[in-house]
Amino acid sequence: MNVGPTQIREDLIFEQFKIGNVPDFMRSAISITTTTGNDTITYWVLPDVLSVGTNKDYLRTSMSPLTAKKIADLYSCILPTRKMAFQIWQAATVKLNPSPNGPPYDATMLSTERMVFHNKKIQDALTNKILGELVSGHKKDVVISAGLLSYPKNVAIVGWWYPSGQMIQPLNYVSHDRNYKDYSHGIRLINRMVTINGQWHDIYDVLRSKTLSILISDEGSFDATQIYA
């Protein structure tokens, strides 16, 4: 079935995650621990961006942030902040070079065909890599951002880091509305429950905290429950 970037495709994608049609290696999260000042946080992130299929045949699925939020809620997860996306890239044991599809830079960037084409390029780059390693650099991250409180109808993206640490995409929450989802967008899920100094916290509470949010946000504290709502 060739379904374009419509709500039909979004609904089909959500249904696949609802029934659990995901690769087995995407069922095990990887812990990331980082310290700021006297506080240490550990959170758990999926090894790759959201994908549909099996270990032998899977597709990284671009989607709107609204669909991503529905899937995150389904799994008691959250999308990363910009700071978390960078922390994940730093921790990744497999850092891939960004590989843009190139022109044309038009509506076809949202097509299923270009999503599949980009997925094939990533798979080729992962030849001989072990499934389940933490992979980054291959997609722009769809993120939550305090800036979206001022642009609530938009999507925020960041990333495509090179192994050198330089990135193609600085944080951008002004260019695209929240129905936009081109082939370069990836959805990374993080478990909502994190530990700080050994104590469990809901990550939404951490992001609201003026003292703790610095662990995972470089935009200050904000109410992330309002993002993509």
TrEMBL record:
This is Uncharacterized protein. It comes from Rotaria magnacalcarata.
